[in-house]
Specification:
Strand content: 5-15%
CATH architecture of the largest domain: Orthogonal Bundle
Largest sheet: 4 strands, mixed
CATH superfamily of the largest domain: Winged helix-like DNA-binding domain superfamily/Winged helix DNA-binding domain
Distance between the termini: 35 Å
Strand order of the largest sheet: 3-2-1-4
Number of strands: 6
Oligomer: single chain
Shape: globular
Radius of gyration: 17 Å
CATH class of the largest domain: Mainly Alpha
Low-confidence stretches: none
Helix content: 40-55%
């Protein structure tokens, strides 16, 4: 966790100070564009280009609500939900979204957004099927393929990172699949908690293994 935090700070600093994304690649200590984009998107929860823009031109509504897994923040642009994240402190969650979109215009919740938040909370408490809400999530082409593969895993079932890579026709890309799961900005809407290790054990959930285990337990309840 400490190593990832250091990486995240380095990537953020490079994107903010460099003149171009290409320059940021080398400033952040990466020796290839592919490795930079793979890691940067996972650490930032969005594409490097979108991070550099800081949400300029975006209109975002957000709400932090209590749930039985702690607190959850739901944020949405006018196109769809851009963040669903778990945490323990309301202010920390709000600060994370504001830091991701420092130049965005934050707006009060409207009736449509309030309904979306209620559906997210309801799904967390009783996860069944797919949380079918409009999404506005940014990522690489590969990340979007992984996220779509995760959405195809039925509730109550799991798939290993290797199995997901094989389904994508890239059997050696298990590590890249894990990175894409780590970069998922919309918990439960893209059910990355259904991705497990090859031996079936739980690992690598950015919001905590305990939450991952509980979501899977709820999905398996009859």
């Amino acid at each position: 966790a400490f190593h990832k935090a250091v990486q995240a700070r380095r990537v953020m600093a490079s994107l903010q100070s460099a003149q171009t994304v290409t320059e940021a690649i080398y400033d952040a200590g990466f020796n290839s564009a592919g490795r930079f984009y793979e890691n940067a998107s996972a650490l930032l929860g969005m594409s490097p280009g979108r991070y550099r823009r800081g949400g300029a031109g975006e209109h975002i509504r957000y709400a932090v609500e209590p749930c039985t897994l702690g607190r959850v923040i739901v944020a949405a642009t006018r196109q769809g939900i851009c963040a669903i994240e778990f945490g323990d402190a309301e202010q920390a969650l709000a600060s994370q979204v504001q830091a991701r979109f420092p130049h965005a215009q934050f707006e009060p919740a409207d009736a449509e957004f309030t309904r979306w938040v209620a559906r997210v909370i309801g799904y967390i408490e009783q996860p069944r099927g797919l949380l079918n809400l409009p999404l506005d999530v940014q990522g690489t082409v590969f990340q979007h393929r992984v996220w779509q593969a995760l959405q195809a895993i039925p509730a109550g079932q799991t798939a290993s990172y290797t199995e997901i890579a094989e389904r994508l026709g890239q059997p050696k890309a298990a590590r890249a699949v894990a990175h894409a799961c780590a970069g998922n900005p919309v918990a439960v809407a893209v059910p990355c908690h259904r991705a497990v290790r090859a031996d079936g054990k739980l690992a690598g959930y950015r919001w905590g293994i305990a939450r991952k285990a509980e979501l899977l337990r709820r999905e398996n309840e009859k």
